[in-house]
């Protein structure tokens, strides 16, 4: 009985680790509709496809999130260190107007999109979003190279970027 229980726990641990090491966005994530700054509807797949051939740093944030705001100087430092990256900001703001005001207030530079259903929506669930800010890196082929980091100065970001050079 103990062996079966240990085996079950081991399988759960592997499944949990696998979820954290996703290398592709799910169909649901790719089909998820987002809003551009120009108030146009666009799928996440259309967004990602624009940047094939480039490394993309994704920052999932919201203007109402104190940790996201505290992390912005670190993101700006990363932008100075790595100007060759595409900086894609996916907002979890509740309204279009609040999102636009947040971009302006915090002087967030990069590509911007707003989710239409928040953190617990389709996109949030598809990336196992449990905290923001959330940082991800997508390689030049569109594969996820770094699935989850919650600090913009986490060593995993630099490690991942060096591997992708």
Automatic annotation (TrEMBL):
One of its GO terms (molecular function) is oxidoreductase activity. Residues 16-165 form the Thioredoxin domain. It comes from the Bacteria. One of its GO terms (biological process) is cytochrome complex assembly. The keyword Signal applies. Its main location: other. It is found in: Cell envelope. SUPFAM superfamilies: Thioredoxin-like. Keywords: Cytochrome c-type biogenesis, Disulfide bond, Redox-active center, Signal. Pfam families: Redoxin. This is Alkyl hydroperoxide reductase. The lineage of its organism: Bacteria, Pseudomonadati, Bacteroidota, Flavobacteriia, Flavobacteriales.
